[in-house]
Design goal:
By secondary structure, this protein is mainly alpha-helical. The protein has 2 helices and 2 strands. A two-stranded antiparallel sheet has the order 1-2. β1 and β2 form a beta hairpin. The radius of gyration is 18 Å and the shape is elongated.
């Protein structure tokens, strides 16, 4: 376990939180705008539907749900690492 001063530890935790949030928001942006921008070029089918239609109706929601779950797990691990986790 690393030894941190309270201020140094909170700065490191804050930087980690900002990086994780920026990364996950970038993925969400890519899913939201990237797929719809390139929808015409994505001309293959998933479960019998065109990929662009499937991604707009179902796929994006699944990706957002996964992003929320990843965010919650990573933030909990950071909280435990820096000693600010809530008791379960």
């Amino acid at each position: 376990m690393a030894s941190f001063t309270p201020v140094d530890g909170m700065r490191r935790r804050w930087r980690s939180c900002v990086r994780i949030t920026a990364l996950l928001m970038g993925i969400g942006f890519a899913v939201t705008f990237g797929v719809s921008f390139f929808a015409r070029e994505l001309s293959f089918s998933v479960f019998g539907w065109p990929f662009s239609f499937w991604m707009a109706s179902q796929g994006a929601l699944v990706v957002y749900l996964v992003l929320v779950c990843v965010y919650a797990r990573v933030m909990h691990r950071l909280d435990v690492r820096y000693g600010v986790a809530e008791d379960d």
